[in-house]
DNA sequence: GGTGCGACGATTGTATTCAATCGAGGTGAG
DNA sequence: CTCACCTCGATTGAATACAATCGTCGCACC
């Protein structure tokens, strides 16, 4: 454990348990807390400027989401990523997201469509500006919003977990990025706007297939999703 | 909120946070806490014989798992099940579990095979003895063990969440049960023992399809999975 | 010199206490 | 009579304090 130079790395006012949860999750996804690293409650409390109680609640949440692992009295640590983990995540996503997209084409609200367009704009902007962490975050959010638009709470929850984990895997394992996927995102939004169920389904399926093969080649396209 | 006659309904010694989490989850699945019902921290603390702190941690865990829903200062309540929720769960499971079964056929250990055989025996016994809650629990466990045997942490986590939710949906919405599915379970175990990937995949796919159509007919087979 | 045992420090788990916020019920003015 | 406002009770959110447990280091003993 290295000494902590800065107690509050992001002093965005005093955080509550939910905010602590988000902050720790972001720090895990962005590699601030590395896989296998042990997270002591007191260190987290100091880091985020709260007491141990909200920290514990946040850690339980993240444990349930699969980012952390704990055993009684043995402490809590960041999950170690298996080699096959990334491929598993992409394979499962390849099963789930086309289904969600097809439903979203039928059920999306105008508000959701607007948010998606906004996300595409922000994403393309972040790509142009080379802001990697922001690209990853927007990517996850994009797929989460589509899942929400499917109207299925089950799909929403699962896709949200998956896309966050995928962003994590990418950021930890691959320090590169891709730009093209955001034009595919724009295509997907258009299909949703048209309400074309099968087009949305196939576009998302192809989109994710490309991400998978790009990942397999370990080259170029990353942060794709 | 009716008055609490019995402070500790299951006095299995003093519970810790993890045990409280399991206990509340079981009570939700078995309909003790009904959908929409608000769960105050103090009532839970009294019910399970601990203070509010471990209760809060358990509630955060269950919230992340999707059984409960909370908003700041608005309290925490059992999620209300949509009408389409059950079908969504079954549809997603129909996508995921055949994949898990195929992998399990290749990677299952002898220990896991033994546990599955034991579960089949226990399940058939519980069916014969008409112990509904136990049948549901064993059902979930059976599918969870197969997912574990797939060697994919992603699949394990998702299938575990799904099977528990499905047990919940069934127990809340349908007060009937089925016996036959356990003979199908036995068939699946045999395929895993043979190491036949495609047989395992197709048996699980058919198994879940039957559960889905049974559910749609709203008759006979329940607690099937 | 190696090994087993025991005490200490560190960390987690829980309880108690206090502060912040929300909603319901009452009260008074219009 | 209706509605706005305000006060109060209840509940959640957070901090502090205390107890239980684990790992490690050191020492005695074999």
TrEMBL record, chains A, B:
It comes from the Bacteria. Signal peptide: none annotated. InterPro entries: GntR_C, TF_FadR/GntR_C, Tscrpt_reg_HTH_GntR, WH-like_DNA-bd_sf, WH_DNA-bd_sf. This is GntR family transcriptional regulator. The keyword Cell cycle does not apply. Keywords: DNA-binding, Transcription, Transcription regulation. SMART domains: FCD, HTH_GNTR. Residues 14-81 form the HTH gntR-type domain.
């Amino acid at each position: 454990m290295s000494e902590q130079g800065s107690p509050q790395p992001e002093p965005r006012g005093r955080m509550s348990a939910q905010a602590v949860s988000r902050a720790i999750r972001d720090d895990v996804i962005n590699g601030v807390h590395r896989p296998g690293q042990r997270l002591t409650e007191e260190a987290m409390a100091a880091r985020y400027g709260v007491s141990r109680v909200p920290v514990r609640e946040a850690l339980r949440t993240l444990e349930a989401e699969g980012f952390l692992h704990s055993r009684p009295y043995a402490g809590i640590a960041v999950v170690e990523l298996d080699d096959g983990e990334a491929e598993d995540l992409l394979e499962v996503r390849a099963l789930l997201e086309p289904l969600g997209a097809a439903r979203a084409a039928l059920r999306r609200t105008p508000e959701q469509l607007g948010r998606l367009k906004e996300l595409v704009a922000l994403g393309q902007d972040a790509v142009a500006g080379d802001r990697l962490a922001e690209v990853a975050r927007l990517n996850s959010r994009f797929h989460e919003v589509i899942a929400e638009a499917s109207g299925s709470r089950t799909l929403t929850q699962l896709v949200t977990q998956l896309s966050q984990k995928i962003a994590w895997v990418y950021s930890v394992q691959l320090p590169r990025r891709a730009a093209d996927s955001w034009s595919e995102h724009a295509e997907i939004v258009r299909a949703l706007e048209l309400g074309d169920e099968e087009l949305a389904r196939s576009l998302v399926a192809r989109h994710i297939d490309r991400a998978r093969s790009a990942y397999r080649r370990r080259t170029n396209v990353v942060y794709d999703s």
